[in-house]
What we know:
Layout (H helix, E strand, L loop, with lengths): L1 E7 L1 H6 L2 H11 L2 E8 L3 H7 L9 H8 L4 E8 L2 H9 L12 H5 L8 E3 L3 H11 L24
Antiparallel strand pairs: 1-3, 1-4, 2-3
Amino acid sequence: METTLVILKPSAVLHGYVGQIVQRFQQKGLVIRGMKMMQLGEPILREHYAHLTDRPFFPDLLKSMMASPVIVMALWGNDAVNVVRMMTGATNGRKAQPGTIRGDFSVSGQENIVHASDSADNAEIELKRFFSPDEIFDYQPSWLKYTYEPAEMK
Ligand code: TYD
């Protein structure tokens, strides 16, 4: 079992899509272990998108990510990083498969609704970036026994 980080971006918050997106993750069987609203600023975004600071679209990306508060989520499950990335879809909403979050809610490369960690190592770093340890809760809802076979709960 592992935990991954999701950000519901301003494009999700300002459209009023938060409930629908949270519902998808819950329906899939992911456990919400942390969730809060926060206003992102330039320092944390420069760190989070360090691989993109030299790209010409970076100033617009900053503006887009600071356009409103975001919702950050810590989602727990078996292979949660890959499961959530599959649900998220390709970066550009126009290229994302229908059925994925970006495929269903976005037609943009930038206004693409969600961020999701792309590897277990990055998930660990990103969870620390957005949550303090006491904001992530270790609990197991009773429905897990109808969600996984015992061997999958590891
Ligand atoms: P990236 O880490 O490449 O993709 P992903 O979010 O799928 O992991 O890019 C981070 C964000 O940067 C992306 O979600 C939206 C923005 N972005 C652009 O605005 N234009 C671009 O051409 C790319 C590649 C990303």
